[in-house]
Amino acid sequence: MAAIAGSAVFLVIAPGVVAGVIPWWLTRWRMGAVPVPVRVSGAVLTAAGAAVLIGAFTQFAVQGRGTPAPPAPTDQLVVAGLYRHVRNPMYLAVLAVITGQALLLGRPVLLGYGAAVGAAFIAFVHGYEQPTLARRYGKQYEAYRAAVPGWWPRLRPARRTPPR
Q1: Among 24, 61, 81, 149, which is disulfide-ready with 7 (CB 3.0 to 4.6 Å)?
Q2: Which of these, 126, 129, 49, 122, lies nearest to 89 by C-alpha position?
Q3: Per-residue pLDDT tens digits for 42-86
Q4: Tens of pLDDT along 15-36?
Q5: What pTM value is reported for the model?
Q6: Does residue 117 fall inside a structural domain?
Q7: Is the CB of residue 67 less than 8 Å from the CB of residue 7?
Q8: Please, are residues 136 and 69 in contact by the beta-carbon 8 Å criterion?
């Protein structure tokens, strides 16, 4: 239960601010002139990103018995489900939500914001997350990293992911 509660709190604090509060602050949710198909595409992308984000957070809590927050990491490396397709589904989901909002609202400022968030995610993953996971999980993480792409999801899941 602690992992679920911790993940829920972190979901509100981190992605909630990055994909919710700041986009609201930038746009006040005011819609620009956008063709209906673009608006619908944005709504679908936003909803899909939110669903993936919630699923990934749930996986961390249930399978990993921990949170995505650095101070309360998982007990186990999470390599199942979404994580067989891509190593960073949470980051990609947040970017999908921001991009979806940009399309839905017709607000290009969110595309620029999304690009800045994406650059920050990449810097964090390369500068902190990957080295930390390599130290924590050793060969298991290195095998996982070799088997699963970091940023471009596979349609078919990786055949061999390291055992848990």
Answers
A1: 61
A2: 49
A3: 999 999 999 999 999 999 888 888 889 888 889 999 999 999 999
A4: 999 999 999 999 999 999 999 9
A5: 0.93
A6: yes
A7: yes
A8: no
Closest CA to 62 of 145, 133, 6, 138: 6
76: which residues sit within 8 A by CB, 6+ positions away? 63, 64, 65, 66, 164
First-to-last alpha carbon distance for the chain, in angstroms, is 21
DSSP 41-70: HHHHHHHHHHHHHHHHHHHHHHTSSS-SST
Q: Domain of 88? A: 32-147
90 in a structural domain = yes
Question: Within a domain: residue 61?
Answer: yes
Structure tokens at 37: 């198909």
Is 11 part of any domain?
Answer: no
The answer to whether 141 and 132 are in contact (CB under 8 A) is no
Q: Please count the structural domains in the chain.
A: 1
